[in-house]
Amino acid sequence: MNRGNVLRVWLPLLLGLCCLYLLFVSGPGPHDLTRWIGLVLSLVGLAGVILARYTLGRSFSVRAQATQLVTTGIYSRIRNPIYVSGMIFAIGLVLIDRSPVLGLFLVIIIPIQIIRARREAQVLEAKFGESYRQYRDRTWF
User: What is the C-alpha to C-alpha distance for residues 133 and 71, in angstroms, rounded to an integer?
Assistant: First the structure.
């Protein structure tokens, strides 16, 4: 296991699990079915983000950059698994915490993520052309 994998995968996973545990156990509201569904969605979302981040490896960047067209792993099915998984994670947090502020955050962040995905698509299409268009045609979001 190299240092990059620890910082890119294992540390965020551990921190995410600790935060989820604390929110689930000591957060406001009853421990009912809604809260449990939120926990499951959050865990699925966190796992998706970590898996996508691992698959990207050194191709990951915060700003849209076209260093390499990654089409393997989770990227063979979903073009933007970090955004999709992040939204699943956020929906789970809203269900666990039931905070109107988190709900508002979710309503605001979804269109922002769609805009970011479109910008990334433009950058990738400009760099990889037909290869990216073929990839886009066989994947979702």
Answer: 12
* Domain 3-137 bears CATH identifier 3.30.70.2190: no
d(CA 43, CA 13): 10
**55: Cβ contacts below 8 Å, ≥ 6 apart:** 70, 72, 73, 74, 75, 81
Q: Rounded to an integer, what distance in angstroms lies between the CA atom of residue 56 and that of residue 133? A: 19
Question: Residue 61's pLDDT is what?
Answer: 56
Token pair of 118 as six digits: 């479109």
* Helix/strand/coil for 78: strand
Structure tokens at 18: 């600790």
A 10 A CB-CB count for 40 gives: 12
What are 100-110's pLDDT values in tens digits? 898 999 999 99
Q: Give tens-digit pLDDT for 73-95.
A: 999 999 999 999 999 999 999 99
**Length, in residues, of the chain:** 141
